[in-house]
Amino acid sequence: MAMPPSIETQQQEVSGEDDNETYSFASQLVLGTCLPMALQTACELGILEIIAKAGPGAKLSATDIAAQLPTKSQGAPIMVDRIARLLASHNWLCCSVMWGGNLGITLHYITSEYPNINGINFDLPQVIQHAPSYSGIEHVASDMFVNVPHRDAIFLKLVLHDWSDEKCLRLLNNCHKAIPNNGKVIVVDSVVLVMAESTPSAKATFLLNMLMMTQSPGGKERKREEFVALATKAGFNNVKFECFDCD
Ligand SMILES: C[S@@+](CC[C@H](N)C(=O)[O-])C[C@H]1O[C@@H](n2cnc3c(N)ncnc32)[C@H](O)[C@@H]1O
């Protein structure tokens, strides 16, 4: 008779499964509170009624919906778009809406793996003062919107999504000035899908997008073309999407 798999075997099987899917599910657990908040907001604003009133098969853009809300905020269509994508990715909204440095830990992982890299960990003074020292890493305290230290490559992980397009442009301009002609700016952020798919990674991105909307004024996850537009405006001419860790 076959024995049930031991705990170790089960763990190996789980960790051997698709790590990205596991990561996406974990993100959904962490960010899960955004979903009921988005639903409540949609109900309180009457977004669902507006869609229902338009009738079956109606094609409403986020701008069409926002125009029927009492608010006059210019950002309303984008917020409606983000709420609708999240609800649609959970099949709660079946609609035809058209979608219009910290402490140096990450850098430490990189320099531990590649000791030939000398890294600068760059953040605000109030953060840098708590950063532990690591060999091969210099901590520099400054404001990235004022200037960025000159280096061959600049790594921005979960930074752009905190900021509006205007701020990102200022930062990317500073990065462009800070690297040589063959230098690189490596951005690690989520990419929002054009359609509201219901895959675990799409759900995790829509949840994160919702979190940014509530926690970081102007901050947002971006679509591919939005990244390209920002990078191009900042003077970069060779934009590549290299790795899709959560697909
Ligand atoms: C979301 S965290 C990302 C941290 C790190 N890249 C990571 O992935 O763990 C954003 C970081 O940007 C820093 N930051 C915010 N405004 C800044 C500024 N004006 N200049 C430099 N760093 C800034 C924050 O202190 C924070 O550590």
Automatic annotation (TrEMBL):
<dbReference type="Pfam" id="PF00891">
    <property type="entry name" value="Methyltransf_2"/>
</dbReference>
<dbReference type="InterPro" id="IPR036388">
    <property type="entry name" value="WH-like_DNA-bd_sf"/>
</dbReference>
<dbReference type="InterPro" id="IPR016461">
    <property type="entry name" value="COMT-like"/>
</dbReference>
<dbReference type="InterPro" id="IPR036390">
    <property type="entry name" value="WH_DNA-bd_sf"/>
</dbReference>
<dbReference type="InterPro" id="IPR029063">
    <property type="entry name" value="SAM-dependent_MTases_sf"/>
</dbReference>
<keyword id="KW-0808">Transferase</keyword>
<feature type="domain" description="O-methyltransferase C-terminal">
    <location>
        <begin position="99"/>
        <end position="237"/>
    </location>
</feature>
<dbReference type="Pfam" id="PF08100">
    <property type="entry name" value="Dimerisation"/>
</dbReference>
<dbReference type="InterPro" id="IPR001077">
    <property type="entry name" value="COMT_C"/>
</dbReference>
<protein>
    <recommendedName>
        <fullName>Caffeic acid 3-O-methyltransferase-like</fullName>
    </recommendedName>
</protein>
<keyword id="KW-0489">Methyltransferase</keyword>
<feature type="domain" description="O-methyltransferase dimerisation">
    <location>
        <begin position="28"/>
        <end position="97"/>
    </location>
</feature>
<keyword id="KW-0949">S-adenosyl-L-methionine</keyword>
<dbReference type="InterPro" id="IPR012967">
    <property type="entry name" value="COMT_dimerisation"/>
</dbReference>
